[in-house]
Amino acid sequence: MVDPVAVNGSVDDVNVVSQELLPTPEEVHRHLPLTESARDTVIVGRKCVEEILDRKDPRIFMVIGPCSIHDVEAARDYARRLKALADEVKDTIFIVMRVYFEKPRTTVGWKGFINDPHMDDSFRIDEGLHNARALLLEFAEMGLPTATEALDPITPQYISDLITWTAIGARTTESQTHREMASGLSTPVGFKNGTDGNLTTAINALHSVANPHSFLGINYQGQCSIVRTRGNRYGHLVLRGGGGKPNYDSVSVALCEKALADAGLPPNIVVDCSHANSNKDPALQTLVLDNLVNQITEGNRSLVGMMVESNINWGNQKLTDDVSDLQYGVSITDACIDWETTEQAVRDMAERLQGALPERTE
Ligand SMILES: O=C[C@H](O)[C@H](O)COP(=O)(O)O
Ligand SMILES: C=C(OP(=O)(O)O)C(=O)O
Q1: Among the entry's GO cellular component annotations, what is one (predicted)?
Q2: Is the CB of 334 under 6 A from ligand 1?
Q3: 219/287 Cα distance (integer angstroms)
Q4: What value does the mean pLDDT take over residues 19-30?
Q5: 33 CB under 6 A from ligand 1?
Q6: How many CB atoms lie within 10 A of CB 126?
């Protein structure tokens, strides 16, 4: 028999080492307020994506950029290049930069710029939140809309006013917490299919996110609150492959259209050219993209968006103890295509879509 007096153990915080207060969302916003030009970028960006999902805008939206942000200077360099490319192809493609600060891990690993901005296990989440917001603000002021994965349910209070498109990742699409959070987000939200390739979890998520929810969250002052949401009518599916198989091909897309129709959902499909759709081989991403453009030019109208993992330089690198060893502009998470390949692929896509998309409707 265990004698509770002899053991004299604590029943609370048994596995918690420490807790530290963070600046509240309000404090971070006060240091880095939304400017008028940034607000314009976000409002126009969200409206463009919503109109694409509503079929008023015939363009294709493309979420493109690094798998994760770890170096602010390289992210700025990439953003400047992408902005110029976005302006060039804007008649057919609406470009949104992937600015992913939170990484879901299969087991363990670096969890992104917000969690560990110095990449040295110092976990300065306070600095991560501040610097993530500062970077998003810069990009919005440049007129470049941004996309991110919403992973921690508290993070959106710090940064979501600067975001145009949000992803719920393959590992969290089935999570009630993430569906609730997404039901209150102000952006269109793409739900990835499960890592096993399962569509049902994402389709269930689309039903859930469209509904109002009440759940635990924090307000701008950082107080625990009951958050009551309206439901998000711009939830949609992102096909990322899974279970060792891709799902970007025309048969998979047709099966997905049927599953959406059977569930009474609009036929809005975004395809992630990376992850299980490219077997994490960056060289395959442009082949996937090419196949998707073929499907569109041959008349497909359910493919509304695409995702590509791209960086300044090709591939990825291991995060080691000495961050000064890192190569510039190379991913420290999944492998990406380089800038030259990106530019070529986006220009080719824009050219092929010219004249292949329906007229704009109002
Ligand atoms: O997009 C990035 C990764 O695929 C995701 O974070 C999972 O990474 P991991 O399997 O290396 O942990
Ligand atoms: C983690 C990601 O993707 P998925 O959720 O599809 O694995 C990602 O896009 O960074």
Answers
A1: cytoplasm
A2: yes
A3: 44
A4: 98
A5: no
A6: 15
Q: Are 210 and 232 in contact (CB under 8 A)?
A: yes
Residue corresponding to tokens 């940034």 = 38
191 lines ligand 2 (CB under 6 A): no
> Which tokens is 123 given?
């976990």
Judge whether residue 233 has pLDDT over 80: yes
Q: Is the dihedral of CA 155, 160, 164, 168 positive or negative?
A: positive
Residue with the nearest Cα to atom 6 of ligand 2? 170
For ligand 1, atom 2, which residue shows the shortest CA distance?
A: 334
Q: Backbone dihedral region of 177: left (phi > 0), alpha (psi from -120 to 50 degrees) or beta?
A: alpha
Residues 6 or more apart whose CB falls under 8 angstroms from that of 262 comprise none
The CATH superfamily holding the domain 20-353 is Aldolase class I (3.20.20.70)
Q: For residue 101, with 0-12 CB atoms within 10 Å meaning exposed, 13-18 middle and 19 or more buried, which class applies?
A: buried
Q: What tokens appear for 294 in the block? A: 């073929």
Tracing tokens 């990484």 back to the chain, one arrives at 103
Q: How far apart are CA 213 and CA 205, in angstroms?
A: 13
Nearest residue to 182 (alpha-carbon basis) of 158, 159, 153: 153
Does 6 score more than 80 pLDDT?
no
Instruction: Say if residues 216 and 229 touch (Cβ distance below 8 Å).
Output: no
Residue 100 CA: nearest ligand 2 atom is 10
pTM of the model: 0.97
The backbone torsions φ and ψ at residue 185, rounded to the nearest 5 degrees and listed phi first, read -70, 150
Q: Which stretches does DSSP call E strand in 30-111?
A: 60-65, 93-98
Q: What are the boundaries of each domain within the chain? A: 20-353
Write the residue with the smallest CA distance to atom 7 of ligand 2.
170
